[in-house]
Each structure stands twice: as structure tokens, then as C-alpha cells.
Design a protein that fits this description.
Radius of gyration of chain B: 27 Å
Strand content of chain B: 5-15%
Order of helices and strands of chain B: HHHHHHHHHHHHHHHHHHHEEEEEEEEEEH
Structural class of chain A: mainly alpha
Helix content of chain A: over 70%
Distance between the termini of chain A: 67 Å
Shape of chain A: elongated
Oligomer: heterodimer
Number of helices of chain A: 3
Shape of chain B: globular
Helix content of chain B: 55-70%
Number of strands of chain B: 10
Strand content of chain A: under 5%
Largest interface: A-B, 45 and 50 residues
Largest sheet of chain A: none
Structural class of chain B: alpha+beta
Distance between the termini of chain B: 56 Å
Radius of gyration of chain A: 27 Å
Number of helices of chain B: 20
Chain lengths: 88, 656
């Protein structure tokens, strides 16, 4: 009997906790703090990191000058495209 | 009363899980924020109730409430407190509740961490997480309830007690770590399904999944290594890996998870292999559920499969559901996931990673095939054909050596294309070092896989050493730093890259340890007090046999003095023969157990087992094994963990 009472109390507390938002008068806006551009900013960050790694590989002699320049230009082009979109 | 409350809490959690799923589906259809908040709270409620149910079971275990069948089966009055607690995951229903408990921890973290982010994905993430929780709630409510009362029609005054093999400190850590890994893969899986469902395949989603993956992969790796450590310290056969189905069950998701960790880097950097990564996430999660099925259904006979059960069809049904639902949604999103880029050169880092992925998958398939072969053969031909360690070794040793080689080759390849000059410059010294090692080994009459393994180990270590050396030298030249500062800053500013190299060093050490197995030797003999035996240049003298009664067992301890070929004493080994439940009036219940004693150095382990005792003639029957290089495996494991921690350490805010 006591166990049933405890279970009932638990059920009541949980039910109130779960259904309370359903009684809000206004429909709450579900807002994502990560802006619409967050994915682009993340991509920009990844590209910057890749440029840094590329420079390091070049410094270590793992990549030849021509390949380095081409890869760096490609990465920079992608970054500038992203920056253009972000600045609009 | 308390067990009844435990059962009711599980009932409530099941009901609330269904409510949570319905609320999220309604939110996805209507977009009403109230449904989202309510669904989020319901998902949290399911986890809170699961915590509560687990705490109730722990409390019952600690208080030895033998009215509950599970408690009576896995503990006794004599069981030490710590092992009463660890009995939570010793049996089927307890371990399934523990699965649910860990998943609930992860769910709460995922929900609280993303209260203001990934809000487009979160309804789906929560739906997937709660669906998996619901599956385990169905199991613990209807199939194997941990709160079920004992079936005895008399008062149970004492329980059967915990299997002595599980009464080991490592067993208090190994299963939770393994579960943290296994269960943790649910979160990346949930995010992947959510991303596909919401057509949101961007870099943000990838960042979240990668962080989770690294953590759960580390936990799984530690769990597997601790399992090997436990087997070596406790089971008394002198090895740490037996290709037992349960070991394989944890190894398979580790293999696909490792492949994923590599290929996800290509997606992050090159926006390629998106479909492949989704496939890997789905397979890894499915293998985790499948592994739990192998462990708990009793379909395989192994030291871990303690209880046969009726879980099989339900588990297989769930595995089938996951595969159909996941690959179904994947097929719908193929167009979105296809990459426009192609791998430009065979000698690029991308192709190196892809090749490594293929090798990991081949290894996983070989392990899966070997694990399921007995079941398949029994189903098809009616005869169970067991596939033993020789099969797994024959297939996996060459594959493992290819992986070891790739560990050295991969980091020296650059993205897009490695030029011939770079290739020659980076590989000349490591190849020469490897060949020199091979030549020396050949001269001292070492051949076959041992020669290849040691040579590759030297090759890989040289490549990694050169990478560190060049990095430090470059910092010394460019930034005018002293070597120590240069090393520290190199590591700190490139954690992911150099952390990965440290992991590879750990792998090399482990391979050296594995290779040492080729030089194992052993001998079994009986000794009276004062007598001696010899093995591999060591003399083993039995000084004494002592007896001791301890709280939960009775022990005979043999004092074996080990001396070298010059007569110098090295160590006193004290292996024990124990009888657990020795006070039980029923002789059937008394359980013998051999507690080992090991003298471990980096060169070799002297491994002693007290097999049996002849009390009439006072003879101790011992088994001694000389296991070379085993400590390299454990030391490699430490380095491996250290490297992973370095790689996953978050950058300071604002830094790349």
C-alpha cells in the first residue's frame, strides 16, 4: 500500500513537471543561440586551421613549394567566399 | 516494499518514454514550442526515473535483500561491500538496467548541453535517445526484471554469492568503462539520424559528433584494455586476449569506431566521405547493440555469458529495426550526402585514411564471421563448429601488421598529393631503420611475423620520432625557443596532430608486447616443501605452504622462491589456491579459485598459478609461465590513453 502511495506521489510530481509547459499561454519561441551563420563560421574556423597545418607541413618540408602554394590558394579562396557571405 | 517501488518506477519510466516520443513527434508535426519543452522534460523524466530505479537496486544489493531474485543470485552475506555494488552489472537484468542508467546519464548531458543549440536537431536526437531507452525499459519491465521476487517458497537467508572471478578490483572498473563506450555511441548515432531527418549536414553537427566520438572511443578503448588486464591477472591461462565472443563483441565497434575517427577528419577537412561516415556511425551503434545481445542472450557459450535467456529474438528484432530505419533514412538522403570532390591522388592523406578504413572494416568482418560461425554452422548443419584463436590469429595478424605499417605511412602523407621528393625525404630514414632491424633479426635467426612486426615497429617509431624532431627543430629555428619549450608548444598548439602521434606510439608498444607472445614458455609440476624445478634459466623452490581463513574464502598460499641461473634470489612468488563459500554446508557450492602471482618487468613476466594441492602428501601443483614483453602492452595502453587525452583536450577560447 505504502509503495503504491509513493509511486502515485512520484507519478503526480512527474506529471506536473512534464505537462506544465503545455499550459503556457504563449507558444514559446524555440531559439537557437547558434546564429544562422554558425555553420559557415565553423567552416571558416576549420579552413583557418587547415591553412595553419599546411604552413606547418611546409615548414617541416613535408610539402613542396608548388603544391603548398596551390593548396594555400585554394583554401584562401574558400575562406574569402565564406567571408563574403558572412559580411553580407 | 522497496523492490515493489523499484518495479513501479520502471513501469512509470516506460510510460513516460512513450509520452516523450509522442510529444516530440507532435512537435515535429506542429512546431508548437510547448510540445518541445514538455517533450524535453519528459525525456529528462525518463532518465531521472532510470537513475532512481538503479539507486533502488544498488540499495537492495548493499542491504542484501534476498527477497529479490537478482540479489539472491549475485550476492551473499559474505560478499564484500564493493562487490555487492559491482554485482549491479554481474547478471543479466542488472547489467541491462546499468545500460539504461549510463544511457540516461548521456541523455541528460546531451539535453542540458544543447538547450540553446542544435535546436533543429534536438527533437530527433531526443526521440532516438528515448527510443533506445524505451527498448531497454521494455526488457527490464517485461523480460528480465531486476526487481522480480525470488521464486523460493521459503525465506532465503543467504544468497548464492558473486562469481569469484568477478571479485577483482579491475572488475569494478572494466565493465563501467566498457559500457561508457558502448552506450556512448548512441549519442553520435542519434545526432546522425537527426541530421539526416532534418537535412542538416553542416560542420556544426560534425563538430558535436566528433567530440562525443573521441570521448566514447577512449572509454571503449580503456574498457577493452582493462578487460585484457583482468583476464591476464585473474583467469590464469597466461594471456590477455582469447578471441572470446564477448571480447570480440567489444572489439568490433572499436574497429569501426576507429575507422570512423579517421574518416571523419576527411569529412571535416575536405567535405568528402559523408555517406561512408553515416554508414560507419550506423554500423558502430548497431554493433554495440549486437554486442550486448551476444553478451546477454546466452547465444554464445563463454566465460562472460553467465546466463542463457529469452532475450535473443527481442534483441535481434531491435537490431533489425535499427538497420532498416537507419539505412532507410540514409537512402532517402543520398543526394544530399554525395560529395562533389574526389580523391586527387593515391599518395594523399585522404587515400591513406580510406585504405586504413578498408583494412579496419575487413578486420571487423573477419572477427564478426569468426564469432558468428559456430552459430551459423549450428543453424545450417546442426553441428556447432567452434572457431578458435588460431583462426582469428591467422587472419588478423597479417591485417594487424598492415595497420601497423599504415600507422607509420599515414602521418607522412599530406592532403591532396604527396610529391615524390617529399616521399623520398620522409620515408628514406624510417625504411632504412626498419630494414636494418629486419637484417639484425634475420641474423639472430628470427623469422616470420615476429621479424615483420619488430621491423615495422622500428619503422613507425622512426617516422613519429622524425615528425617530432622536425617540428621541434622548426620551432627552435623560427621562434628561437629552447628544445623543451619548443616541444611543449609544438604539442600544445597542435594537440590533435601530435596527440594522434602519441596514440600511434602506444599502438607500436602494444604490438611489441603482442609479438612477445611468440617467445612464451611454460611448465607444470608438483613440489614438496624444499624441492625445486627449473624453467628458462630460473629455479623455482617451494619454501612453504601456508593456510589462511579470510572473510569470504579459505586460502592455501605457496611461497615459491625464484632465483636466476647464478643462484641470486629474484622474487618470492605467492600464488594462492582459494575456496570461496567454504563455510557453506553444501560442498557443491564451495568454489575453488586460483589466485595468481606475477613478477612483471619490461623484459618478461614470471606468471605463477597454484593449480591444486595434495593435502595428504603436502604437494603443491604449480604452473609457471614465462611471458616476454607483456608489460609493453600495458605501458602502450597508458601512452595510448595519454595521447587520446592530448588529442581531445579542448583549445583555449578564441584559439584554433
Amino acid at each position: 500500500m505504502i509503495s503504491l502511495v509513493i509511486a502515485f506521489l512520484l507519478f503526480t510530481v512527474l506529471a506536473v513537471f512534464v505537462i506544465q509547459p503545455l499550459f503556457l499561454r504563449q507558444n514559446p519561441e524555440i531559439v537557437d543561440t547558434e546564429s544562422n551563420n554558425a555553420a559557415l563560421k565553423q567552416r571558416k574556423k576549420i579552413l583557418y586551421r587547415q591553412i595553419k597545418e599546411l604552413e606547418m607541413d611546409h615548414q617541416l618540408g613535408n610539402i613542396q613549394d608548388d603544391d603548398y602554394r596551390q593548396a594555400r590558394d585554394d583554401l584562401k579562396n574558400e575562406v574569402s567566399t565564406i567571408l563574403t557571405v558572412l559580411n553580407k | 516494499m522497496i523492490p515493489v517501488i523499484g518495479g513501479l518506477v520502471l513501469n512509470l519510466a516506460l510510460g513516460l518514454a512513450i509520452v516523450a516520443i509522442c510529444l516530440h513527434i507532435l512537435y515535429l508535426r506542429t512546431g508548437d514550442g510547448r510540445l518541445f519543452l514538455s517533450g524535453q522534460r519528459a525525456a529528462l523524466g525518463v532518465s531521472l526515473l532510470s537513475f532512481f530505479a538503479t539507486f533502488i537496486l544498488v540499495q537492495l544489493l548493499i542491504n542484501s535483500n534476498f527477497d529479490v531474485d537478482y540479489i539472491a543470485h549475485y550476492t551473499s552475506q559474505e560478499t564484500p561491500l564493493i562487490y555487492k555494488f559491482t554485482a549491479l552489472w554481474a547478471g543479466q537484468s542488472g547489467s541491462l538496467l546499468f545500460w539504461l542508467f549510463i544511457l540516461s546519464i548521456y541523455s541528460v548531458i546531451a539535453i542540458l548541453q544543447n538547450q540553446r543549440s542544435h535546436l533543429k536537431l534536438m527533437p530527433w536526437v531526443m526521440t532516438v535517445l528515448v527510443t533506445v531507452q524505451l527498448f531497454f525499459l521494455v526488457l527490464v519491465n517485461f523480460i528480465t526484471n531486476p526487481f522480480a521476487p525470488t521464486e523460493a517458497d521459503f525465506v532465503v537467508v543467504n544468497g548464492l554469492g558473486l562469481n569469484p572471478l568477478l571479485q577483482n578490483a579491475t572488475m569494478a572498473i572494466h565493465p563501467p568503462m566498457l559500457y561508457l563506450g558502448y552506450v556512448g555511441f548512441t549519442v553520435p548515432f542519434a545526432f546522425s539520424i537527426a541530421a539526416m531527418a532534418q537535412k542538416e549536414m553542416n560542420a556544426l553537427w560534425m563538430r558535436t559528433v566528433r567530440q562525443w566520438l573521441l570521448f566514447v572511443w577512449l572509454m571503449l578503448s580503456i574498457g577493452i584494455m582493462l578487460g585484457g588486464w583482468w583476464a591476464y591477472q585473474e583467469l590464469g591461462w597466461g594471456g590477455y586476449w582469447a578471441w572470446d565472443p564477448v571480447e570480440n563483441a567489444s572489439f568490433m565497434p572499436w574497429l569501426t569506431g576507429t575507422a570512423l575517427l579517421h574518416s571523419i577528419m576527411i569529412q571535416e577537412k575536405k567535405n568528402m566521405l559523408k555517406v561512408w561516415n553515416m554508414v560507419l556511425i550506423i554500423i558502430t551503434f548497431t554493433l554495440c547493440i549486437f554486442g550486448t545481445f551476444l553478451t546477454r542472450s546466452g547465444i554464445m557459450s563463454s566465460v562472460h555469458s553467465f546466463a542463457a535467456s529469452s532475450l535473443g529474438p527481442v534483441f535481434l528484432g531491435f537490431v533489425f529495426f535499427i538497420m532498416v530505419a537507419s539505412f532507410g533514412i540514409l537512402s532517402q538522403r543520398m543526394n544530399l550526402l554525395r560529395s562533389e570532390k574526389r580523391i586527387e591522388s593515391f599518395s594523399s592523406r585522404e587515400s591513406g585514411f580510406l585504405f586504413n578504413n578498408v583494412v579496419f572494416i575487413v578486420m571487423c568482418f573477419a572477427v564478426l564471421w569468426g564469432t558468428l560461425f559456430p552459430v551459423i554452422s549450428e543453424a545450417v548443419r546442426g553441428t556447432k563448429i567452434t572457431v578458435g584463436a588460431p583462426f582469428f590469429n591467422q587472419i588478423n595478424i597479417p591485417i594487424g601488421l598492415v595497420l601497423l605499417c599504415l600507422t607509420g605511412v599515414g602521418p607522412l602523407l599530406v592532403w591532396r598529393k604527396t610529391s615524390t621528393q617529399s616521399f623520398i625525404r620522409n620515408f628514406t630514414a624510417p625504411i632504412l631503420a626498419g630494414l636494418a632491424t629486419a637484417l639484425v633479426l634475420y641474423i639472430i635467426n628470427i623469422r616470420g611475423y615476429v621479424l615483420i612486426s619488430f621491423s615495422l615497429a622500428v619503422f613507425v617509431i622512426t617516422t613519429i620520432f622524425l615528425e617530432f624532431f622536425r617540428g621541434v627543430r622548426s620551432r627552435i629555428t623560427v621562434h628561437r625557443e629552447n628544445p623543451l619549450t619548443a616541444f611543449w608548444r609544438l604539442l600544445r598548439k597542435n594537440r590533435s596532430r601530435y596527440g594522434g602521434y602519441i596514440v600511434h606510439v602506444g599502438i607500436v608498444f602494444m604490438f611489441v608486447g603482442f609479438t612477445g607472445h611468440a617467445f612464451d614458455s611454460e611448465k607444470e609440476f608438483g613440489l614438496k616443501t624444499g624441492e625445486s624445478e627449473h624453467l628458462s634459466g630460473y629455479t623455482f623452490t617451494l619454501y612453504n605452504i601456508r593456510e589462511e581463513e579470510r572473510p569470504n574464502h579459505y586460502a592455501w598460499i605457496s611461497d615459491v622462491q625464484v632465483s636466476d641461473q647464478f643462484g641470486k634470489n629474484i622474487v618470492l612468488l605467492q600464488p594462492e589456491k582459494r575456496i570461496y563459500f567454504h563455510r557453506s554446508p553444501d560442498p557443491e557450492r564451495r568454489q575453488p579459485h586460483s589466485e595468481l602471482d606475477i613478477y612483471a618487468t619490461m623484459k618478461q613476466d614470471i606468471y605463477s598459478i597454484f593449480n591444486s594441492i595434495d593435502l595428504e602428501n603436502n604437494v603443491a601443483y604449480l604452473k609457471i609461465m614465462i611471458n616476454p614483453l607483456v608489460n609493453w602492452v600495458w605501458f602502450g595502453g597508458f601512452i595510448f590513453v595519454l595521447g587520446t587525452i592530448v588529442a581531445m583536450w579542448p583549445p583555449r577560447k578564441g584559439k584554433l
